[in-house]
Design goal:
By secondary structure, the protein is an alpha/beta fold. It is 51% helix and 18% strand. It has 6 helices and 4 strands. The radius of gyration is 16 Å and the shape is globular.
C-alpha cells in the first residue's frame, strides 16, 4: 500500500489533561495549559508536514466556563497570545477556521479570530479547525 494512502485525511484531537499534567509535576495548572498550547503548535505543523488535509482541535468547551475564574482568564490570555501568533500559519500555508459559539467569547478575542481566519483564507495546505465554546447540549439546542 502506498505510504500516502495510510495518512488520514482528517484528524480530531480533544485537548484535555493539561491541568492534570501540570498538577502531577507540582506546577500551576496554567503552566499545563501553556505547555499544551506549545504541543498544539508543533502538532499542527507536524500534521501539515505529514500531508493531513484537516485537523480539528477541541480546545475550550462550554463546560470549561465552570472552571475557576482565574483559570478561565488564563486560558483566554493564552488564546489571545496564540491568535496574535496565528499570522505565522499564513506563511506556512495553513488555513485557520473556528467552530463553536464564537460570538459569545470576549470581543477582543472574536476580532482576533476573524483576523486569523481572514489572513489565512487563501491558504491551500492544512485546514485547521479550532473548536471554541462548543458543547453537545448547546449544539442540540441551537439546532432545534
Amino acid at each position: 500500500m502506498d505510504e500516502q494512502k495510510k495518512i488520514p485525511r482528517h484528524v480530531a484531537i480533544i485537548m484535555d489533561g493539561n491541568g492534570r499534567w501540570a498538577e502531577r509535576r507540582k506546577l500551576p495548572r496554567k503552566m499545563g495549559h501553556a505547555e499544551g498550547c506549545k504541543v498544539l503548535e508543533q502538532t499542527v505543523r507536524d500534521a501539515a508536514d505529514l500531508g493531513i488535509d484537516y485537523l480539528t482541535v477541541y480546545a475550550f468547551s462550554t463546560e470549561n466556563w465552570k472552571r475557576p475564574a482565574d483559570e478561565v482568564e488564563n486560558i483566554m490570555n493564552i488564546l489571545r497570545d496564540y491568535l496574535k501568533d496565528a499570522k505565522n500559519f499564513k506563511d506556512e500555508n495553513i488555513q485557520v477556521q473556528f467552530i463553536g459559539n464564537i460570538e459569545a467569547l470576549p470581543e477582543d478575542i472574536v476580532l482576533l479570530i476573524r483576523d486569523a481566519e481572514e489572513n489565512s483564507r487563501e491558504a491551500t495546505g492544512l485546514h485547521l479547525n479550532i473548536a471554541l465554546n462548543y458543547g453537545g447540549q448547546q449544539e442540540i439546542v441551537r439546532a432545534a
